[in-house]
Amino acid sequence: MVGATSDNGPVTRTLDAADVTRKALRQSLLVLVPVVVIAAVVGWFTSGAAGVWGALLGGAIAGSFLLVTLLSVLLTVKATPVVTGGAIMGSWLLKVIIVIAALALLRDLTFYSKTVFGVVVLVSIVVVLAAETRVVLKARMLYVDPSGTGQSDAR
User: Fold this and answer.
1) Among 31, 82, 37, which residue's Cα sits nearest to residue 55?
2) 135: closest CA among 10, 30, 1, 12?
3) What is the pTM of this model?
4) 83 pairs with which residues across the strands?
5) How many Cβ atoms are within 10 Å of 91's Cβ, its own excluded?
6) Measured between alpha carbons, how far is 43 from 68 in angstroms, rounded to an integer?
7) What transmembrane ranges does the database entry give (predicted)?
8) Mean pLDDT estimate for the chain
9) What's the angle, vertex CA 20, arms to CA 17 and CA 23, rounded to 5?
10) Which letter does DSSP use for residue 112 in this model?
């Protein structure tokens, strides 16, 4: 429990992978939404309605691309590492195909600002990755089994 004390000093609660992933997802959304809102306002003042559409599309593409990976990890957190890795790689491949198709569809359309779109995609990616990195670096997560019940074949 966080904040509790014992005879040996303060006791802190360690997080498991699901807790860290949920926290990263929550923090990512908490930083992505304001970035897109601010970008839409700036887009309005720089490019009018086309700037707003560019900001919304850029935030949607960048956000979905980044957040689907966290959802894949969260859905497979209890699975074996092979299954988790397969889910992450499969979702990555699917995201790449969808992003390429979306960009191909948007290429010739003129209702949005391509400049605002590009800037928002880049800023969203940097901000969301920074939030995810901060969560992971601050997580108190065990890397070994503290119970010591794991069996080793090495002799």
Assistant:
1) 37
2) 30
3) 0.71
4) none
5) 18
6) 26
7) 29-46, 52-75, 82-105, 111-131
8) 81
9) 150
10) S
- Going from N- to C-terminal start, the domains of the chain cover 14-138
Largest CA distance in the chain: 70
From residue 111, give the alpha-carbon distance in Å to each of 39, 44, 50, 63, 108. Answer: 16, 13, 6, 21, 10
Look at residues 52, 24, 21 and name the one whose alpha carbon lies nearest to residue 36: 52
Share of the chain above pLDDT 70, in %: 79
Query: Could you identify the residue written with the tokens 């503290």?
Result: 146
Give the helix/strand (H/E) hosting 148. Answer: none
**Residue owning tokens 């959304």:** 29
Tokens of 31: 């930083």
Contact between 117 and 125 (Cβ < 8 Å): no
pLDDT band at 8; cut points 50, 70, 90: low
Kind of pairing between the strands at 4-6 and 9-11? antiparallel
Alpha-helical segments (H) within the chain? 17-47, 49-75, 81-106, 114-138
